[in-house]
Amino acid sequence: MSGILIAEQILNGLQSGVMLFLMAAGLTLIFGVMGLINLAHGSLYMVGAFAAAWVAGATGSFGLALIAALAGAALAGVLIEMLVIRRLYAAAHLDQVLATFALILIFSEGTRLVFGSFPLFLDVPGALSGPVTLPGGIQYPLYRLTLIGVGLLVALFLWWLTARTRIGIQIRAGANDREMIAALGVDISKLYTLVFALGAALAGLAGALVGAIQSVQVGMGEPVLILAFVVIVIGGIGSIKGAFVGALLVGLTDTLGGIFLPQVFKLFMAPDVATQTGSALASMAIYIVMSMVLIWRPSGLFGARA
Amino acid sequence: MIPERLVNLAILAGLAGVALWALAVDTPFTITLATRAAILALAAVGLNIALGIGGLVSLGHAVFFGLGGYAMGILAYHAQTYTTLDLGPLSVTGSKSMPLIWLVAVVASALAALLIGLLSLRTSGVYFIMITLAFGQMFYYFAISWGTYGGEDGLSIYVRNGFPGLNTLDPIQFFGLCFALLCLALLVYARLRAAPFGLALNAARQVPARVETVGLSPLRLKLVAFVISGAITGLAGALFADLNRFVSPTMFSWQLSGELIVLIVIGGVGRLMGPVIGACLFVLLEHWLGALTAFWHIWLGVILLGIVLFARGGIVGLLTGKAGPHV
Amino acid sequence: MSELILATHNLSKSFGALKATDDVSINLRAGEIHALIGPNGAGKSTLIAQISGGLRPDAGRVMLMGRDVTQYGTATRARAGLGRTFQISALAMEDSVLENVLLGALGAEGRPWRFWSRATADAEMRARAMTALERVGLADDHDKRTAELSHGQRRQLEVAVALTLSPRAFLMDEPMAGLGAGGSKRLTGFLDGLREEAPILLVEHDMDAVFALADRISVLASGRVIATGTVAEIRADRAVRTAYLGEDA
Question: What is the reported pLDDT for C249?
Fold first, then answer.
């Protein structure tokens, strides 16, 4: 196997990792600050993708499509936060699970009602299509490279937001002590809506960006949501840094495992058996990584000790 | 308000009554619906032990349902193709016998529950939810990528498996079998709930710190509950596969895990009959609303939101006027 | 001197820069009530957690009946004879009063792995549970849902659960919390008689109760034991008056 192929796969892993990070960052922020487990986060991813595909179809502009994705998902986020989610902050986990599960049903079927069951397609913008040649002679799609860049920029932005800004201080204080933050005169309910909208916008952005390389369809959000949960379990709930490390780990493991495990098994098995065993095991690889982290550190790599 | 015991009996009698009525007017499809309700109820009774008594919000119970299904699928597949199943040094022939299939389903599910429980109970609360959900997804993808047993397309079993002394191809006899197992599981639930184990488990849900200070381990109590719970749901999975004569990775899907919780909540969490009434209503909604509109899940979502925000005791709670346990 | 039941040796626990307990050595002897007092934030809760097993110390040991239990969890310490009550009642509110004490009996017998027989039908456990309820005066309320009990009754039930364990030492975290004068007085009377059965390490804010009950008092301030002595000695101690009672010496 050539070095070029390996480098390509590593880039693919990074790309899927940073997109996962966009999902996981929002989820972990919402859990860290409001103590809410939001199953409907995958729906916001889907909303972003559909908003982008629809606007791109109508205007032909990818830039407008991204804005639509951010705005659409943030708006949907604000809407459900104000109508449903805010009644759940103090509720038991079971209630949160059920209500956000109900939201998934409503979002998914609602989207099917409006857009039908067939997938929509969102094209990679012309300026970003085609490959670029990287040092070492690697040909790699420019769009995917851009996704890695966008993901890293968002990570940087989130770090700046939480570490360096007033709102970030409020968010961190809110995560530690709700009464304290209320006592400081911050409107906690507005802060919560804002954090939720931020998480929603990130999910919507991820949905739109990934939508251009996969199809945009109902149910696209939940597999990503569950992967994001794996990321959070690995990284530790509430930790943006953990979400980042976890997302890259999951992205790389998933991508590289799928390619290399069958190859590894071919070294000592018949090719057809090796392909099957390898790919079956590869499908489990990230969960095995998660299990090992759980055994080693039950509250995640960067989680507060329980 | 109506006493809970009366409500309970009426629900069971109602389910059996519908099946018998369908037999009398010769509408086998209705018997199949009743059987489906009984099997889903059985799966949910299993989950109710973990969720209702132990407070474990498992979003991965489809794992056990699916394992039960594949236990049936794999054994029956080898029996119908006259092939053997190689387990390393051991070579096993398939089976078309329900009792044997059930045993394998129960044991496999219990073992999986033990492993998943050991890993996920190291943490608590919201981690537990995410981890069980993740393991569910692991089994789902594994089933898709494991080509031997149909992969994504699943496995069809041509003839329903047999039970000594019964003709399982006759809908009402198969219903009777499922209904009897449901009643047995309800008896297990009721006895276990009132037994020392149930008392301790119920306390471990409410005040784990107290349970520890009387010298018991909440973790072990919850682990055992999770194993029993998984085993019962696994049994239901084997029956479900036999009802459809088909098993596929969708039996492992997270939607199914979610729906099992939904069943229980509609009926009433931690109520003996909550899962049964929930399953009956779910099957009715699926059938009626599904016939009216292809988008019936929207209405299920709305109903569910209504219950979560306004009627915590579920249907049994509304009927008996008592609030449910808080999970 | 009578037998040493419970002792801590140089227990220390820090959270970041804060020394929550700092080199704390206290002990409890058979037949006595040893009260632990101190202002809020003195480290009482941290100390209780380290004694009961919820928190591991950074340094130091906890000895129960001559056994080093420092590495044991809460459940193991309970089985070794430590009976604990909570400051904020930790009771199964959805369950009946009887079920709450049955839980204690169940723990005492160490037999929770019974799946088929009714817990309330086990004569031996029931007798143990009812005895405990009778002793705190709750026998008539055994059928009530715990959530229906008054605050004072919950405090009594809290003690009753600990009684079912027949512990070798009691660790009581503010048993008088929230009780009116009458309730406080009745519980004081009850605890007074309990010390013969098993000694009590009593953390309490109610100074009337402390002065009425304690054989010895230890004063905790800023994580350290600043004084240990009889009621009279502590009343007279200057350091205590300054640190705790807030009086100018």
Answer: 41
Q: Best of B148, B298, B310 to disrupt the A interface by mutation (most A CBs within 10 Å)?
A: B298
Number of domains into which chain C is organized? 2
pLDDT at A281 > cutoff 90: no
Question: C247: pLDDT confidence band, cut at 50, 70 and 90?
Answer: low
Q: Provide the domain limits for residue C245.
A: 1-81+168-249
- C118-C122-C127-C130 Cα dihedral, nearest 10 degrees: -10
Rounded CA gap, B115 and B132, in Å?
11
Which phi-psi region, left, alpha or beta, contains residue A239 (left: φ > 0; alpha: ψ -120 to 50)? beta
Compute chain A's Rg from CA coordinates.
Answer: 20
C-alpha dihedral, B122 to B127 to B129 to B135, nearest 10°:
-70
- Chain B positions touching C53 (Cβ under 8 A) are 212
Q: Give me the DSSP letters along C149-203.
A: S-HHHHHHHHHHHHHHT--SEEEEE-TTTT--HHHHHHHHHHHHHHTTTS-EEEE
CA gap B17, B10 in Å, rounded: 10
Same domain assignment for residues C200 and C234: yes
Exposed/middle/buried for residue B91 (C-beta within 10 Å: 0-12, 13-18, 19+): exposed
d(CA A50, CA A54): 6
Per-residue pLDDT band for A306 (boundaries 50, 70, 90) equals: very low
* Residue B249 to chain C, least CA–CA distance (Å): 34
Place of tokens 């193991």: C76
Residue C230: give its domain's CATH number: 3.40.50.300
Amino acid (1-letter code) at residue C190: F
Element (H, E) at B91: strand B90-93
Of the candidates A119, C44, A144, the residue with the CA atom closest to the CA atom of residue C52: C44
**Domains of chain B with CATH codes:** 4-320 (1.10.3470)
Pick from A170, A159, A229: which is nearest to A194 by CA?
A: A170
- At C186-205, the pLDDT tens digits run 999 999 999 999 999 999 98
* Residues C175 and C233 occupy one common structural domain: yes
Task: Name which of A92, A103, A233 is nearest B127 (Cβ-Cβ).
Answer: A233
ipTM: 0.92
Per-residue pLDDT of C98-133, as tens digits, reads 999 999 999 999 889 999 999 999 999 999 999 999
Q: What confidence category does residue A130 fall into, taking pLDDT thresholds of 50, 70 and 90?
A: confident
Does A291 touch chain B if contact means CB atoms closer than 8 Å? yes
The pLDDT value recorded for residue C246 is 60
Q: How many CB pairs under 8 A join A and B?
A: 125
Q: Please give, rounded to a whole number of angstroms, the shortest distance from the CA of B32 to a CA of chain A.
A: 26
Taking only the tens place, the pLDDT of each residue in B151-168 is: 999 999 999 999 999 999
| A196-210, A273-287, C49-63, C124-138: the lowest-pLDDT one | A273-287
Find out whether B73 and B241 touch, Cβ atoms under 8 Å.
yes
How many angstroms away from the CA of A132 is the closest CA of chain B?
33
Buried b (16+ CB within 10 A) or exposed e, B208-219: bebbbbbbbbbb
pLDDT at residue C140 in the model: 96
Angle between helices B4-24 and B274-292 (to 10 degrees): 50
pLDDT at A1 over 60: no
Q: What is the domain count for chain A?
A: 1
Which residues of chain B carry a pLDDT beneath 70?
Answer: 1, 312-313, 321-327
Q: Do B131 and A280 touch (CB under 8 A)?
A: no
* 8 Å CB contact between A220 and A114: no
Q: Under 8 Å CB-to-CB from C22, ≥6 apart: which residues?
A: C12, C43, C222, C223, C224
